[in-house]
Design goal:
elongated, 274 residues
């Protein structure tokens, strides 16, 4: 066997796979200083929404039994999680369009680690965005009341949500033709779903058609979960998923993972085979 063939042979074993995944995730994160605008959707965008709705529209929005500040910030956190679909989609589409995947194919790394590295890197970016949203909220006076049990439950569900929405975004990025398409189509889909999910105004006050959509919007379950766990005495109501938001969020996340992971892996393998 030639030296070239030996050096290009993918390494096996779980430790090598984990090492390759972390190395590729690090590559994705190291690209941020060179292209900082890729973080606009998880950093500046939530801050813009907070300032607009808290200080411009907030005075005109009344939520019974809760201050608008306590109502808004859980919704912003949930919306930031959902917008991770766009960020992951754009990043994945960029790698596919720029030929990065083709370069990785010739390297002595596990092929599966290429896509898992992408997922881990994008999830880390979403964690940064969530941290900024939470920190900005605390700085503006938001005071979430979390018991230890509720804190652990929220952390677990948010981690599961990160995994689910990131895999969904990676699959989406493989299906579109360009990063611009991922950005445009992503906003067309995610923006209306997030606005209708009760992030900024209560679902109960919507007209029948948008309320029917919001009742079963997966982002609505995320919003209601964060709001229920961080706000004592708050209880969402409407559809079954709004009456049981934690269970609904768990079901939605597991469903997204069950659908998106195998489809993303299948699409990725087809790309490598061409």
């Amino acid at each position: 066997m030639s030296a070239t063939a030996t050096t290009r042979r993918p390494r096996g074993g779980p430790l090598e796979f984990a090492r390759d995944t972390l190395l590729l995730a690090g590559r994705s994160l190291r690209a941020i200083p060179r292209v900082p605008e890729r973080l606009l959707d998880v950093t500046i965008q939530p801050i813009v929404f907070i300032l607009l709705f808290l200080y411009v529209f907030g005075s005109a929005i009344h939520v019974p039994g809760i201050t608008y500040k306590d109502y808004l910030f859980p919704g912003i956190i949930a919306q930031s999680l959902a917008f991770g679909v766009i960020g992951a989609g754009v990043a994945t589409s960029s790698d596919m369009a720029e030929g990065v995947i083709d370069r990785f194919r010739s390297m002595p790394i596990s092929r599966l680690s290429i896509i898992t590295g992408e997922v881990v890197g994008q999830a880390c970016e979403q964690v940064l965005g969530l941290a900024i949203a939470v920190g900005f909220g605390l700085a503006l006076g938001w005071n979430p009341h979390l018991t230890i049990a509720h804190g652990l439950e929220l952390a677990g569900l948010m981690l599961l949500g990160l995994i689910a929405f990131t895999w969904c975004g990676v699959l989406f990025g493989m299906l579109v033709r360009s990063p611009d398409a991922a950005q445009g189509v992503g906003f067309i889909i995610i923006m209306p779903l997030s606005f209708i999910a009760g992030v900024f105004v209560p679902i109960a006050g919507m007209d029948p058609i948008p309320r029917a959509i919001a009742d079963w919007d997966p982002i609505s379950a995320v919003v209601a979960t964060v709001r229920t766990l961080t706000t004592p005495g708050y209880h969402s109501s409407g559809s079954w998923q709004l009456d049981h938001p934690e269970i609904a969020m768990l079901i939605w996340c597991l469903l997204l993972i069950a659908i998106c992971v195998p489809l993303a892996l299948r699409r990725f393998n087809r790309t490598l085979a061409t």
